[in-house]
Design a protein that fits this description.
Nucleotidyltransferase, domain 5, alpha+beta, Substrate Binding Domain Of DNAk, Chain A, domain 1, six-stranded mixed beta sheet
């Protein structure tokens, strides 16, 4: 992994942002600058293949690995040993045996991502990249741990690499569409080998900030199909079209929907004629493959250059913190509220460290305020065994972070108080749920 090392540079006049959509079927990479819309480059030879098969292949008898389309070609020609399902293998944690040697599946996933980044090194040299967002379908605790290890393996600057869900990437993409596209709810139909997911985005303009939520349904039996070479292909197409229209009707009827995006190669061809007619009754229809990678790219830019398009709104996805966490403190003799963790942020991106002088020497109290402002809770944390000292002579270091979207973790360390009270080295840990 020496090719990447620690080369993601500080933002400058020519900031470049990268979004990587990572799935077990295909992956994509989009890039943009601070002033241009995202683009998804094709292959190095200029072809329009935007999807990179998430595949590695080790050439027989050699130490070199191919990836993507080249890995497919070499495997088909029996010149290399293929390794597919890289995300699933990383989740399993089981070693991958190739030609008698065991390989760490997380290292293989890192190798694939390194090759994807190197593919566009001429357009996006890493020393000019200000931020990278890797987007996956479900960034749960296990996936975040895997991606964190990938970043370490690639020796990227962790503070400039972020993770987000497909839903959040879609939110960023939608925010930057023309007003007529996002005038009402927006629907995304994502068709892949695991079935179809229908995602419906709606915005509540009665709140400040405006809250955007996503509802999703999964249809595992509705799969991409190849119609060539089957008996009665027209009949099979018509049946597929009817099934798709039934799914659309179940999700769209009774809602104001301004646009429907159909993602995946499974929508290619002319099998969904009647469904398209239904969609286009008062709605815009779009086909494509790179919505998530473009949304991830925009999300990377939003980290450093917040836009007017997203000002005043917040996306409240499944991986978002659903409440504000803070404490009441005394500043300059007056009681004040100190925010620790903010609602609307990804739980895996939230952490806060600070030092406190305690009035109540053996007790802290956290205030949990849901986004709707109702059912505010006060959660105590007792510091049993803390040394007895004079008032406001108990100095502690506090670190709070999220273990999941609903569980907070707190660590408190006694720092002592200068020369008068040396640090005891005592530590206290606590966890609590916020919803």
């Amino acid at each position: 992994m020496e090719g990447i090392k620690n080369r993601i540079g500080l933002p400058g006049k020519e900031r470049i942002y990268i979004g990587i959509d990572l799935t077990d079927d295909f992956s994509q990479l989009s890039l943009c600058t601070g002033s241009e819309d995202p683009v998804t480059p094709g292959t190095a030879d200029g072809e329009e293949r935007l999807c990179i098969p998430t595949l590695l292949a080790k050439r027989y008898g050699e130490s070199s690995w191919a990836y993507g389309e080249e890995a497919l070609k070499l495997s088909a020609e029996n010149e290399a040993f293929p390794v597919d399902r890289l995300v699933e293998r990383a989740r399993s944690g089981q070693g991958v045996e190739v030609e008698g040697m065991d390989y760490d599946p997380v290292d293989l996933l890192a190798l694939f991502i390194r090759k994807c980044l190197s593919r566009n090194s001429a357009q996006a040299p890493l020393e000019k990249v200000a931020a990278i967002v890797i987007t996956v379908e479900e960034p749960d605790e296990q996936m975040i741990a895997i991606l964190t290890q990938v970043v370490k393996t690639l020796r990227l600057k962790a503070e400039r690499v972020f993770f987000q869900s497909h839903a959040e990437s879609a939110y960023h993409f939608i925010c930057h569409q023309p007003l007529d596209v996002r005038a009402a709810d927006v629907c995304i139909c994502d068709l892949r080998s695991t079935g179809m997911k229908v995602m419906l985005f709606s915005e509540n303009i009665q709140t400040k900030p405006h809250v955007v939520i996503m509802q999703d349904r999964h249809y595992p039996a509705f799969l991409p199909e190849e119609f060539a070479g089957v008996r009665n292909p027209e009949g099979k197409k018509n049946k597929k079209d009817q099934e798709f229209q039934q799914i659309l009707t179940a999700n769209l009827d009774g809602r104001r929907v301004s646009a429907v995006f159909m993602l995946g190669d499974g929508f290619e061809g002319d099998w969904c004629k009647e469904s398209l007619k239904y969609i286009c009754k008062g709605r815009r229809a779009f086909r494509g493959n790179n919505l998530f990678s473009k949304g991830a790219c925009i999300g990377a830019r939003e980290k450093l250059e917040p836009s007017e398009e997203e000002r005043g709104s917040v996306f409240l996805g499944q991986d978002k913190l659903k409440a504000n966490i803070g404490m009441n403190v005394v500043r300059e003799g007056e009681e004040a509220y100190m925010a620790l963790l903010d609602a609307g942020k990804n739980w895996y991106d939230t952490a806060k460290e600070c030092e406190l002088l305690l009035d109540a020497e053996d007790r802290l109290e956290f205030i949990v305020t849901p986004l709707n402002g109702k059912n505010v809770r006060k959660i105590p944390m007792f510091l049993q065994g803390i040394p007895k000292r004079k008032r406001r002579a108990v100095r502690v270091h506090l670190r709070i972070s999220m273990q999941s979207e609903s569980k907070a973790s707190v660590e408190v360390t006694d720092l002592g108080f200068g020369e008068f009270y040396p640090a005891s080295g005592l530590q206290w840990e606590s966890t609590f749920t916020i919803v």
